[in-house]
Design goal:
Length: 399
């Protein structure tokens, strides 16, 4: 991706222009109400800026997986209302994203007005990157702004095909995400560390392979770490692991060593006989995991070791928890390390960039999200960037 070719609307005269903004309004909704407006509040500065400059702002987004059918429960109408509340100004809504209904809504939009169009995925052409749907969308605008990094790993009509039909720009939120990731991966202050957690090695092999060439320390946690402990010859009891990937884990460790990257694994863990709230637990060394127990979090010696690693670093990238943080007391390892990273960041000693669904939930649970340098709300796109893959929605804007 030729990222230096990305253009923004800064300095562009947008007064009276119909600006199509591809945003991500795919937020959690229960009983017709948005339960987490984080993605909406992050969009506010960019949308407000365009509106204040006199643009006619037309917001495009998908919501859920309706698979090309009109599903009333997946309408963006309640989300549009929540966006209006976040903006503190009226937001209009159109019952379709193309056709006469959309065209009439756009025609009625005044300079500085904001309109949300109905769910893009009510049309099958969206996920098929259909040029005909893209052409219908393009009729509604004069310029296009891609501001949904979290959707940029998909080549869809509203992220890829449309950029061939309108002058296209990168939105401020998308640029924030890209700049944060480039700071952590391309131009980091060294030494650097990456925390990679989660349940399975199989889902993170490309991430580990890419990161080992870019960071000085690779901290592996969660269920993933158990497969690496198996590869080191440790018995792990009933712990979650992928025994068929022992060979892959050894290859990753050997390759990391050859690149001068230190892989840091747990040295002790919190074990329990079952994974449930209030289960009796205790701390054991990784060399003494009982056959009838499972590791559900890192132990105090591991926390001390990981803390020492991060204390010596200047850049930290974080994707995935160290343990089963959703159930007490198995989040203490993740929370302790997160609190340290947050404190170092606040003190100006660390650049910390985190992302991925479970990561955001874990940092929220630890109460430190706002203290990290940047926390991405993207899931798949964040992961694919860590894998070193080209994101179609970003490449299209740079084209």
């Amino acid at each position: 991706m030729q990222l230096d070719k990305l253009k923004t609307t800064a300095g562009l005269d947008v007064a009276g222009k119909r600006v199509l903004v591809r945003a991500d309004l795919n937020v959690p909704v229960a009983d017709g109400r948005v339960t987490d407006a984080t993605r909406l509040t992050r969009l506010v500065p960019g949308l407000a800026d365009l509106a204040d400059r006199g643009a006619k702002v037309i917001v495009l987004s998908h919501f859920g997986r309706p698979k090309g059918a009109r599903v009333p429960e997946m309408s963006l109408k309640p989300v549009a209302e929540a966006l209006g509340a976040a903006l503190g100004r009226p937001v209009a809504f159109a019952e379709d994203c193309v056709g006469e209904v959309a065209a009439k809504a756009v025609a009625g939009l005044a300079n500085g007005g904001i309109l949300v169009l109905e769910n893009l995925r009510f049309h099958k052409g969206e996920e098929k990157n259909d040029p005909e749907l893209a052409a219908e969308l393009a009729k509604l605008g004069d310029i296009f702004v891609g501001d949904a990094f979290s959707c940029a790993h998909r080549a869809h009509a509203s992220t890829d095909a449309i950029t061939r039909l309108l002058p296209s720009y990168a939105g401020p939120l998308l640029m924030e995400e890209i700049n944060a990731l480039r700071t952590a991966l391309e131009h980091p202050k060294r030494p650097t560390a990456a925390v990679v957690g989660g349940a399975k090695v199989s889902t993170k092999i490309p991430v580990l392979t890419n990161l080992m060439a870019k960071v000085d320390h690779l901290i592996i946690g969660g269920g993933m770490a158990n497969t690496f402990l198996l590869a080191q010859g440790h018995a792990i009891g009933k712990s979650l692991a992928e025994p068929d990937l022992i060979g892959t884990a050894r290859e990753i460790m050997d390759a990391a060593a050859a690149k001068g990257c230190t892989i840091v694994l747990p040295v002790d863990g919190v074990v329990a006989a079952e994974f449930k709230a209030g289960a009796a637990s205790r701390v054991v060394d990784v060399t003494a995991i009982p056959a009838d127990q499972m590791v559900l979090d890192v132990g105090p010696k591991s926390i001390a070791r990981l803390s020492k690693v991060i204390d010596g670093c200047r850049t930290l990238l974080w994707n995935g928890p160290l343990g089963a943080f959703e159930i007490a007391p198995f989040g203490e390892g993740t929370f302790a390390l997160a609190r340290q990273a947050a404190a170092m960041t606040k003190a100006g000693k660390l650049v910390s960039v985190a992302g991925g669904g479970d990561t955001v939930a874990a940092l929220n649970a630890a109460g430190v999200t706002d203290d990290f340098t940047y926390v991405s709300t993207a899931g798949g796109a964040f992961l694919e960037w860590l894998e070193g893959r080209e994101l179609p929605g970003v490449a299209a804007l740079a084209r």
